[in-house]
Amino acid sequence: MEQYPNTLMELEAQFSTEAACRQYLFALRWPEGFICPRCGCAKAWRRGALLWECAKCGRQTSVTAGTIFQDTRKPLTVWFRAIWLVTSQKTGASASGVQRVLGLGSYRTAWTWLHKLRRAMVRPGRDRLTGRVEVDEAYWGASETDGVKGRKVEGKALILIAAQEDGPGIGRIRLGRATNASAKTLAGFIGNAIDLGSTIHTDGWRGYAWLKAKGYVHEVSPLRRRSGAGPEMLPRVHRVAGLLKTWMYGTHQGAMSHQYLDYYLDEFTFRFNRRKSASRGKLFYRLLQQAVHVQPVPYERITCPALSPCSEAHKP
Question: If DSSP codes are grouped into helix, strand and coil, which group holds residue 99?
Answer without folding.
Answer: helix
